[in-house]
Amino acid sequence: MNKVEHIGIAVNSVKQAGQIYSKLLNTSVYKTETVEREHVLTAFLQSGPNKIELLEALSEDSAIAKFIAKKGEGIHHIAFDVDDIEAEMKRLKKEGFVLLNDEPKPGADNKLVCFVHPKSANGVLIELCQEVGV
Fold first, then answer.
1. In terms of DSSP H, where are the helices of 38-117?
2. CATH of 3-131, one of 3.40.1190.20, 3.10.180.10, 3.40.1190.10, 1.10.3720.10
3. pTM, whole model, 2 decimals?
4. Tens digit of pLDDT for each residue in 11-35?
5. Alpha carbon 57 to chain centroid distance?
């Protein structure tokens, strides 16, 4: 794993949270994107080398809606940049981590992604991210 790629924050409204985080970080939302497969609207902000992904549920059955219903708004996941997501998934499985998907899947911001179950990582949902085309 190379670095923290971004921190994902579950929010009720990307628009409202984007305004708050824009003021907090003194920067603007540089990209919004709908990930239909996950029923989520995302917005990205960057402050120096650090990125924040805001996640708004687009349906009641999305993982983000379920997260907010259970825990409220807040940090949803930490994402790590990897060079080879399939090799990293294989390594983590060998180390005993439980992955939430068997194959990498397309995610927001031109990434292939895979999630590590929070029960395997001390209660934290971990996302692996590989830039598509790298």
1. 63-71, 85-94
2. 3.10.180.10
3. 0.92
4. 999 999 999 999 999 999 999 999 9
5. 13
